[in-house]
Design a protein that fits this description.
By secondary structure, the protein is α+β, with helices and mostly antiparallel strands. The chain is about 20% helix and about 15% strand. It has one domain.
């Protein structure tokens, strides 16, 4: 005698339904794993945004100990260092010394290089040496070039000027060009002193519109091909697409920009400064529709800016998207 329902196999319709459900499940898992592992564009943007917020908070910590002024070393007249030159004073042996962190100065006669005056990155390195920002916070996970954080050195040129070695140094010596740092900062000097925007914002109208930190600014490069080409003076309406003027981080899709009120926004073009100013260019008449890009050189002419509000801010340093070089 047989009890219960008869034992039968699955119908074709049931099998087909199981295949469809299994396929949907596999698709969901495949797309969820990168998110769980911190991969994918959105998680990388989130980490990058948190980094920028940490950097701005470190700048404010420094300002509290320096009469409201963000960290800065003296400017260098008509030039500035567009990137990281990891050299200060020579070591006793005249070569890179892991203990002191010193490597020989370059023999080009420029005190700006030997002392790190005129280096915007030397300004930001002060937040590291004071313990307010970790070196890893200066690495964007979507940066194809800077993948190794700099190590912290306490060496300085002398006791009075306190010029610290800046980004671009690793445990085994200098990192490769463009390594160790993923972000650009509002050029901090005007007329030989800190710019009006380079402070805690207490006296700045609409400080929430003042960009301070962004993903690495792209160097002007019209020779590169495809998505590595950069013409930062292009207007928003152009035939190339948004990548033509975006940062090289995040695949050229856009950049995170941090403002003086410590909020960070994802932007798909650089026209996000005051009155839609282009933060990758500068000009005496403002840069709403273009302007002058940062000269593509490690030692670059200092941009001529004004302290008049609304501010024409330009992000430095710039890095070549195609080669990763300063």
């Amino acid at each position: 005698m047989q009890h219960g329902p008869p034992n039968r196999g699955l119908t074709r319709l049931e099998v087909a339904a199981m295949v469809v459900v299994s396929g949907i499940f596999a698709f969901l898992v495949a797309n969820a794993l990168p998110l769980l592992n911190g991969e994918g564009s959105l998680p990388r943007r989130a980490v990058c945004s948190a980094n920028i917020r940490d950097i701005i908070q470190g700048m404010y910590e420094y300002a509290q100990s320096d009469n409201g002024c963000f960290p800065n070393v003296p400017p260098a007249g008509g030039i500035f260092i567009n990137g990281a030159i990891p050299c200060a004073v020579p070591s006793a042996r005249g070569t890179y010394d892991k203990k002191t962190g010193f490597i020989p100065s370059r023999k080009n006669g420029r005190m700006a290089v030997r002392s790190l005056a005129g280096s915007p990155l030397a300004c930001l390195w002060l937040t590291v040496t004071n313990g307010w920002v970790r070196p890893t916070a200066f690495i964007c996970p979507a940066d194809p070039n800077a993948i190794s954080p700099s190590i912290e050195f306490a060496g300085r040129v002398d006791n009075s000027r306190r010029y610290y070695l800046n980004f671009g140094m690793g445990y085994d010596g200098p990192l490769r060009s463009g390594g160790g740092e993923s972000y650009s900062f509002a050029y901090p000097w005007v007329h030989g002193g800190p710019a009006a925007w380079w402070n805690d914002g207490s006296n700045i109208p609409n400080s929430y519109q003042t960009p301070l930190v962004s993903d690495m600014a792209p160097m002007q490069d019209l020779r590169a091909a495809g998505r590595e080409k950069r013409n930062v003076t292009e207007p928003i309406k152009n035939s190339y697409g948004q990548y033509i003027y975006n940062s090289g981080n995040h695949g050229g899709d856009g950049q995170n920009v941090g403002y003086a009120d410590d909020h960070v926004a994802w932007t798909i073009n650089p026209y996000v400064g005051m009155d839609h100013d282009n933060i990758f260019t500068y000009g005496k008449a403002g840069t709403h529709g273009g302007g002058t890009p940062i000269y593509p050189s490690l030692i670059a002419p200092a941009p001529e800016l004004s302290n008049h509000h609304p501010f024409d801010i330009v992000m430095v340093p710039t890095r070549n998207v195609a080669t990763g070089r300063w």
